[in-house]
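Hey team,

Filing this mostly as a record. A colleague (T.K.) asked me to run one chain through the structure pipeline before their review meeting, and I want the input and output archived in the tracker in case anyone asks later how it was produced. No errors, nothing strange. Just documentation.

Input sequence:
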Amino acid sequence: MQEPGKQMEQELENQKNATDADAGVAADAHSVAGLQEQLSAAELKAAELQDAYLRAKAEAENIRRRAQEDISRAHKFAVEGFAESLLSVMDSLEMALKVETPSVESLKEGVEMTLKQLVSAFEKNKLLEVSPQPGDKLDPMKHQAVSAVPAEQEANTVVAVLQKGYTISERLLRPALVTVAQAK
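Output structure:
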């Protein structure tokens, strides 16, 4: 048998170990509950982020679709303004054809007025002439030399303009056809 003092110490030690074990179980239970709360919060946050992602993806798809529709409409109606400005030219030509007995003077006057309307429509829509003058230096970005002829001027300069060129919004639509002076 153990001494009564030692026995008491042993019992106190056993009680302390039991209390520590109970505290450990309680701490583990508290820890598990805390982890479950953290897991629930993380799952909730993940669901919110998933929802936000799906909404952003849908919005991006809507923006892309609207942009494609806008581009399609822009292509479809790009010439609308130009066509509208040509309507007066068409009207003038049709009226000229309705004249019963036109005189040469009235025809010439009508053609000049129609040409003014056409030039106005071109200017309004930034369709401008490229019309080099004789003696101008050949610009391969705006002129196309169709032949070289002997001339009393510097080589590679314009001698004659065979056909005007045109630019649209500073982009070459058709080069001017020219003859140039050939090298001596």
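Quick notes for T.K.: The mean pLDDT is 87. The first helix runs from residue 4 to 76.
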